[in-house]
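Entry 14. Ran structure prediction on the chain below.
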Amino acid sequence: IMLHSTLALSLLLIAVTSNLAMAIKKEKRAPQTLSRGWGDEITWVQTYEEGLYQAKKSNKPLMVIHHLEDCQYCQALKKAFAENEEIQEMAQNNFVMLNLMHETTDKNLSPDGQYVPRIMFVDPSLTVRADITGRYSNRLYTYEPQDVPFLIENMKKALRLIQTEL
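Output, structure tokens:
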């Protein structure tokens, strides 16, 4: 009887520890890898193609953010973007959102070069909005942290243009 209960206890212990290990592993996982720090509450699409599909299906504009992990300007913009409640709320509710760390094959997304950070809007009609630009003539689609109010205006413009053009 002694041997039997020791065996049962060992098995129980093994079961508990493996469950615990799994629970710990789950806990460690980042809340949402697709956000890459741009906003964990936002639902992000994984690819440009998926973004286009969702934009067409939902009749929402697609917002494409090109950035790189080791770019200090991207990091600064990301922080301002993630901390701004108005941007986060609009991004959650009114846009299909995509952030990319590589270039797409769509040349329309780099009309004036492949620099980062670069934010562009694509209409649900799948037209890249080359008319929604930032404040800098040398890099039309770049934004700096202090340009957040300007980015908010451009997000509103992207939403307005859909309503007037359909």
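The first strand starts at residue 62 and ends at 66. Will compare against last week's run tomorrow.
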